[in-house]
Model the fold of this input.
Amino acid sequence: MLRLIKLELQKLWLNKTSRVLIFISFILPFTVLVLSSIKINFFGFFTLELGELGIFNFPIIWHITTFFASYFKFFFAIVVVSMIGNEYSNKTLKQNLIDGLSKKEFILSKFYTIVFFSICATVLIGVASFLIGLYYSSYTEASIIFREVEFLLAYFVKLVGFFSLCLFFGMLLKRSAFALGFLFVLYIFEWLIFWGAYEAFGNADSAFKLKNFLPLESMYKLIDQPIQRIVMTKFPEKTDIAYDYAVHWYEIAIVLGWSALFIFLSYRLLKKRDL
Done:
C-alpha cells in the first residue's frame, strides 16, 4: 500500500497544477476557519465576532466546520479526475502496466491516495476545530468537547465517497472537464428521479427518502446543514424548526456502499478497456 501511495504522490508532485490544487484544497478550509474566528470591523459602525455568537462552542463546532469545509472538496476533485486524465494523455497508464503494475494495483493506488488525502483533510479540520473550540467555547468538560466528534468520521466518509465518484467518472470519460461536468449531470438526474418518485408516490417525504439513497444526495445527507441548529440554540422555543441533524450509521453505510461500487466499476472499466 505504501509503495502505491508513494508512486501516486510522486506523479502528483511532478505536476505543477496538481501541487497548487492540493495546496489550495488543504489551506483554504483552514484559512476560512481562522478568518471566521477573528473580529470584523464594519467601517467603524460595529464589530462582528462570530465566536461571540456561540457557533464555535463545543460540541456544535464539529457540525459547523465539517459542513462548510466539505464544500472545498471540489478543489481536490479536480486533482482526482486529473490523475486519470493525465494517465491517458501522457501515456503513463500503459507505461505503468508495461513496467509490471497490475490493473488492480493501478486502481488501488488511486484509491489509497484518495483515502490518504481524505485522512489528511479530516485531521486538519479536526485540529483546527479543536483549537478554535478551546479558545471560544465556554464548555471545557471532555464529555462535551468530544460529544459529536462523529461529524469528523462523516466528513472523512463524505470525502472518500465523493472522490471515488470522481475517480469513476474520470475512468469512464478519460477527460477531466467531461468528468467534472458529469457531476452536474448526475445532480440533475437525481432531481429527475425525485420528481418521478414524487409523481409516483404522491408525497415529497417518500420521494426524498428515495433520493437519500442516491450518490450525491446520500453524501450530502451525511452532514446536514447546521443553520437551523444554530437558530435553535438561540431561540429554543422555536420547536417548529427542530430537525434530525445527527450522523446515522446507515447514512455512513450507504456512502461506503457507493464508494465500494465506484472503485469496483473503475476497476472493471480498466480491466475490459483496450489500452
Remarks:
- The longest strand covers residues 39-42.
- DSSP finds 13 helices and two strands in the chain.
- Strands lie at 39-42, 46-49.
- Residues 229 and 235 are 10 Å apart (CA to CA).
